[in-house]
Amino acid sequence: MNVDKQFKRYYAKEVSNLSEGTVSIVRGWVEDIRPLGKLTFITVRDRTGLAQIVLNKNIVGDETFKLGENLSRQSIIEVLGKVQKSKSQNVPMEILAEKLVVLSRSKPPFPIDPTGRVFSSLDKRLDARALDLRNPQVMAIFKIRHTVLKSIRETFYNLGFIEVNTPKIIGQAAEGGANLFKLSYFEKKAYLAQSPQLYKEQLTMSLEKVFEIAQYFRAEKSNTLRHVCEFTSLDMEAAYMDEFDVMDVAEEVVYNVIKDVEKENAEEIEILKVKLPKIERPFKRISYTEAIEKLKEKESIEWGEDLQTKDLRILGRIFKEFYFIYHWPLAIKPFYIERLDDKLSKSFDLMYGYLELASGGKRVSSREELERRLIEQELDPKDFEYHLKAFDYGMPPHSGWGLGVDRLLMVVTGRNNIRETILYPRDPKRLVP
Questions:
Q1: Does residue 20 form part of some domain?
Q2: I want to staple 43 with a disulfide (CB 3.0 to 4.6 A). Which of 19, 32, 108, 156 is the partner?
Q3: Which of 73, 129, 226, 339 is flagged as catalytic?
Q4: Same domain, 163 and 75
Q5: How far apart are CA 245 and CA 90, in angstroms?
Q6: CATH number of the domain within which 94 lies
């Protein structure tokens, strides 16, 4: 049974700003217990921080005092009491308890230490992710993630975009059949979507400017620090824009994300002990050809090759912040990217150091050209008939990009492993929890 509902519940962070004598309710999980004779000090944590609870045996009585002494750490409790000044230098105000209720008793031992005082491997932490999230450092990452998602949406709303939701069970592959999870859909062959590419292009015919934040899936047996099988992608597409116009949109999104996190998450940045990336506008832009010339100063590489991780690491040491590489070779870009000439495409990648964050460009808006591109890449136009039909209805010129939200969060929070930025990551080795 809960304590008296006539009194207001305050979060731990709010307690230090309350007037002495304020009757308040605090809820959270027990982090520490310190018995000192007829006093017991209980540290309670909630999503905002820590509150100190004082149990005085003379006030709460023997039964409640014994209950407090015998609490197991991580148990969920509710306390009603009066705010008073604390003698501790780290806790300006505390709660002198009058009532204490155990809402849920924990059962130690625990698989990990959620305070973070005892080291646990990432695998062990992910196995107990619900408990791991009580670690202030882990929680800080996902508070920042919340700000990032909110900032992205606000930027697109302010730019006049419409938020959409496209199917995640699809009957045709956006980029061919590679790296797709196959499934049976009522005795029909289907796939988990790896991209909203074809849908978002079609939506520019009517909605003109669209964006989506959603989960997508790639069946890549990759165990690197920057790849997972289920990831969050930010996708946008806009009619009547070229590749440089949508590069400007990407820059606006990233710039606002950094500024909003700086403004709203100072405490979390301090907890993580990281520095936000420096961000100067406009972002530097180099062509693929210029990038190859830079690389030739350091290694042997030929024009036309895709850039590997080792190449991107070299460029990342030259261009340390956010930058674009634009006009890549046509042969190494997807069929829906428009050609600039016989060799180049109207494409770009957004980079941070060596890490690719986004990829996009101007799209093919002619059915005949799209069919030629499909054939060039040894794809069967019949497999894309539903998409090709849309071009007969009048397809405006359009451009767009997709950005890995989890990777962007790696940059913002200073994490080296993408799994740390995802609540419940999925990779070739992990399907639970």
A1: yes
A2: 32
A3: 226
A4: no
A5: 51
A6: 2.40.50.140
Q: Which of 94, 243, 251, 356 is catalytic?
A: 356
Distance between start and end Cα atoms, the chain: 31
The answer to whether 407 is a known catalytic residue is yes
- Residue of 27, 125, 134, 218 marked active site: 218
Domain encompassing residue 270: 131-167+202-213+232-421
Among this protein's residues, is 227 annotated catalytic? Answer: yes
- pTM beyond 0.85, yes or no: yes
Q: Note whether residue 329 is domain-resident.
A: yes
**Spatial strand order in the sheet of 355-362:** 162-163, 209-217, 230-239, 398-404, 355-362, 347-352, 322-326, 284-287
- Is 90 exceeded by the pLDDT of residue 174? no
Domain co-membership, 87 together with 154: no
Number of domains in the chain: 2
Query: CB–CB of 72/88 below 8 Å?
Result: no
Assigned token pair, 149: 């998602």
Name residue, tokens 């049974």: 1
Residue 220 is a catalytic residue = yes
| Catalytic residue of the set 24, 86, 120, 359 | 359
Q: What is the largest CA-CA distance in the chain?
A: 87
From residue 249, alpha-carbon distances to 155, 281, 283, 402 in Å are 9, 12, 12, 12
Catalytic residue among 220, 262, 264, 371: 220
E runs forming strands in 37-174: 39-46, 49-56, 76-85, 93-104, 162-163, 169-170
Q: Model confidence over 202-257: pLDDT tens digits?
A: 999 999 999 999 999 999 898 899 999 999 999 999 999 999 999 999 999 999 99
Given phi > 0 = left and psi -120 to 50 = alpha, else beta, which region is 371? alpha
Per the residue annotation, which of 27, 125, 134, 407 is the catalytic one? 407
Asked whether residue 5 is assigned to any structural domain, the reply reads: no
Q: How far apart are CA 38 and CA 414, in angstroms?
A: 45
Is 34 in the active site?
no
Q: How far apart are CA 103 and CA 46, in angstroms?
A: 14
